[in-house]
Design brief:
22 strands, 29 helices, metal ion binding, Enzyme I, Chain A, domain 2, 762 residues, alpha/beta, 8-stranded mixed β-sheet, sugar transport, EC 2.7.3.9, cytoplasm, Beta-Lactamase
């Protein structure tokens, strides 16, 4: 049974279209279960009707033409209940609805199971028999297992655009197709989508209509010739060191490349209207599927050879393809299956209107960068047909996490009003730049910035930052192909310290591991977030830690505005060891004649263990800063970059709020400063609660700072504390946020949090 499931899944995965995949499913399931009928109904994303998409046993001409309303028939009953329906005689069930034109009137027994992906019912898989009989438990279990396996495949087919064919009579222009994701960075973007993808990744290549078919064919054959030359060079270079049998492996590659069928198929796909990389993807994946289905183990292994050759050809194609930035003649919305920081780095900031990523969450690093740069962003848009959206008109709503494709004039006009209101708000924020963040009843709270780039200095000062609450030192480490020297680090840190002097600059020691990797210092672990990261790495590598601390202290010479912060602290011993090393580095720098003072040292509270040791840690350090992103992740056991569970990542989760409040309670009377430097601090609603709890400083992206200041200056501390008291007893994160929005609306500051027009659109 397991072997059968695997074979069906492999065939479906390799199918060239959604319809081909569905036809494979109904054919193979009907045969495997010896049933007289197998059919698949898929939910139309627009009408929510159940469309008969594929069948074996019913009238084949009905496929794609007949449908059931969302509330009629046994199929919709399966979908509504989201569980199997197994009937000995379907005709006597009150929900039975005869679908005219299918020829199903003679079939009595019925078994339907839902196809579910991420809690969403995508469709229903049905088997039927003429005779009255109840399908046994084994048959039901097989169908449930198969539908669970196939859900991801069908969801991916939808995400790559196949489901748009369910409504062939709908004109795309003005259709207002709406997709839901996760709000990553507030704001609205209106423009054309440009699909971006990582290098040499066949699976991520989108379909794209070529401007010049002959040019695409020429580029493909040039790439093919380049790969052939590469393999011959490698084979020749290694010929003296390998046996004739091993050399034959390279001959296999060359034979595949010389086989005219593969090249001819790619050329045909290009002529049919796909650009060279997209055509290559189609053909290579088809050939991989052929080999993977073979019984012979040796031949089955050839699938990996085909995959490798496909990547090599694609790599050469992408070398010949102009860089994405060169192709962008006007600002666009970048769309990708998984946006990365390196992708953003390839495009000038003035060419980016908005960002959409199928993978990731609001606390992914791309979302954090987007907030720092003020780019409207939606993450975790798992149902978006991203591969079919190149050059398509799009609206990105970073307030609600919604995306509109083929928007109508009416929806464009509505969102243009929001864009206009945003510009007006920005001019209002500008007037607050030099004013302190002070509540209506005179309570002051410091507003600092999180930085990582030199460009952040002027941008932060222009927006009224009072200092740096978090300087991420991993950024200069990531942009190199080796560890930066002590002298290079000193120069980098000096620019930050001078730029903000005399205001304090909190520099965090190297925080790599987890989802932050250095290309020259790989950390491969099964569970990286619970592994070797942050302070654990640097204390294990004193040569890295000491060079960094010495560089920081030297950079502060004559400025005396340095504060050092230690990340990922989970026990007192780590702080003791780090402080001893910092004192040693200070003494060494002092002996070298630098004009320095011993910097203040603090710790990040981002691990649950640290929450319960606040009192002990407070007696050892000068300040504490809560990293709300990681603290939320660890408290809720949610990988913030995993789109499968991104919906469970709630910064307003009652457990997170209670942990933040408990930190203040434990630190009370210890005489140390408390701040929050996670993304919660840059959310005006979060800032209200944090201030009310008693934190001294909020640190956030420079783009968030004006909005937070505008909101806090319009409230009294008493109002903020009243809001805190009302939400702390609540048991649901959504209830917390909804209650806060009601309270800020009553306080008259909702417009400063999001433009008023957005409330009517959502």
């Amino acid at each position: 049974m397991l072997s059968l499931l695997r074979r069906i899944t492999q065939e479906v995965t390799a199918a060239q279209s959604l319809q081909a995949a569905l036809d494979i499913i109904v054919r193979r399931v009907r045969r495997a279960m010896r049933s007289e009928v197998c059919s698949i109904y898929l939910v139309d994303p627009n009408s929510q009707d159940y469309i008969l998409m594929a069948t074996r046993g019913l009238n084949a001409d009905a496929a794609g033409k007949l449908s059931l309303k969302a509330n009629e028939g046994l199929v919709s009953l399966v979908g509504r209940r989201a569980e199997p329906v197994n009937l000995e005689d379907a005709h006597i069930h009150p929900s039975f609805h005869y679908l005219s034109g299918t020829g199903e009137e003679r079939y009595r027994s019925f078994l339907g199971v839902p196809i579910i992906h991420h809690r969403q019912v995508l469709g229903v898989l049905v088997v039927q028999h003429e005779e009255r009989r109840r399908f046994d438990e084994g048959e039901e279990a097989f169908l449930i297992t198969l539908s669970a396996q196939l859900a991801g495949v069908i969801a991916h087919a939808e995400a790559t655009g196949a489901m748009m064919s369910l409504t062939p009579n709908t004109s795309p222009a003005g259709a207002d197709f709406r997709y839901k994701g996760i709000a990553g960075s507030s704001g609205v973007a209106i423009g054309k989508a440009v699909v971006v993808f990582p290098p040499a990744d066949l699976d991520a290549i989108p379909d794209r209509t070529p401007e010049d078919i002959n040019f695409e064919i020429k580029e493909f054959y040039q790439a093919l010739a380049s790969v052939r030359r590469d393999i011959k060079k490698v084979s020749s270079r290694l010929s003296q060191h390998i046996s004739s049998d091993e050399k034959a492996l390279f001959d296999v590659y060359l034979k595949i490349l010389d086989d005219n069928s593969l090249a001819g198929e790619v050329e045909t796909k290009i002529k049919e209207g796909n650009w060279a990389p997209g055509a290559l993807r189609q053909v290579i994946k088809l050939h991989i599927s052929f080999f993977e289905q073979m019984e012979d183990p040796y031949l089955r292994e050839r699938a990996s050879d085909i995959r490798d050759l496909g990547r090599r050809i694609l790599s050469h194609l992408q070398e010949q393809t102009p860089k994405m930035a060169d192709n962008l003649t006007e600002p666009a919305i970048l769309v990708s299956e998984e946006l990365t920081a390196s992708m953003l780095g390839e495009v000038p900031l003035d060419k980016i209107k908005g960002l959409v990523s199928v993978m990731g969450s609001s606390s992914s690093h791309v979302a954090i960068l987007a907030r720092a740069m003020g780019i409207p962003t939606v993450m975790g848009a798992v149902d978006l047909p991203y591969a079919k959206l190149d050059k398509v008109d799009m609206i990105v709503d970073g307030y609600s996490g919604q995306i509109f494709t083929y928007p109508s004039d009416a929806i464009i006009d509505s969102y243009q009003q929001i864009v206009d209101e945003e510009r007006q708000l920005e001019s209002e924020y500008e007037q607050l730049k030099d004013l302190p963040c002070e509540t209506l009843d005179g309570q002051r709270i410091g507003l600092y910035v999180n930085t990582g780039l030199l460009a952040d200095v002027n941008r932060s000062l222009d927006r009224g930052a009072e200092g740096v609450g978090l300087y991420r030192t991993e950024v200069p480490f990531m942009i190199r192909d080796r560890f930066p020297t002590e002298a290079e680090q000193e120069q980098i840190y000096r620019q930050q310290l001078e730029g903000f002097a005399p205001a304090p600059v909190t520099i965090r020691t190297l925080d790599v591991g987890g989802d932050k990797a250095l290309p020259y210092f790989p950390i491969n672990e099964e569970n990286p977030f619970l592994g070797w990261r942050g302070i654990r790495v640097t204390l294990d590598h004193l040569e890295i830690f000491m060079a960094q601390i010495r560089a920081m202290i030297k950079a502060s010479s004559g400025l005396h505005n340095l504060k050092i912060m230690l990340p990922m602290i989970s026990n007192v011993a780590e702080v003791e060891e780090a402080q001893a090393l910092i004192r040693r580095a200070y003494a060494e720098v002092k002996e070298e004649g630098y004009d320095v003072v011993m910097p203040k040292v603090g710790v990040m509270i981002e691990v649950p263990a640290a929450v319960y040791q606040v009192k002990e840690l407070a007696g050892m350090v000068d300040f504490m800063s809560v990293g709300s992103n990681d603290l939320t992740q660890y408290l809720l056991a949610v990988d913030r970059n995993n789109s499968r569970v991104a919906g469970l990542y709630h910064t307003f989760h009652p457990a997170v709020l209670r942990a933040l409040s408990d930190i203040v309670r434990q630190a009370k009377g210890e005489g140390i400063k408390l701040s929050v430097c996670g993304e919660l601090a840059g959310d005006p609603l979060g800032a209200i609660l944090i201030m009310a709890m008693g934190y001294d400083t909020l640190s956030m992206s420079s783009t968030s700072l004006p909005r937070v200041k505008a909101v806090l200056r319009k409230l009294s501390m008493e109002q903020a504390q009243n809001m805190l008291h009302q939400v702390m007893p609540l048991a649901h994160a959504d209830a917390v946020k909804q209650t806060l929005m009601k309270l800020v609306r009553e306080a008259g500051v909702e417009r400063l949090i999001r433009p008023s027009k957005t409330a009517t659109l959502h």
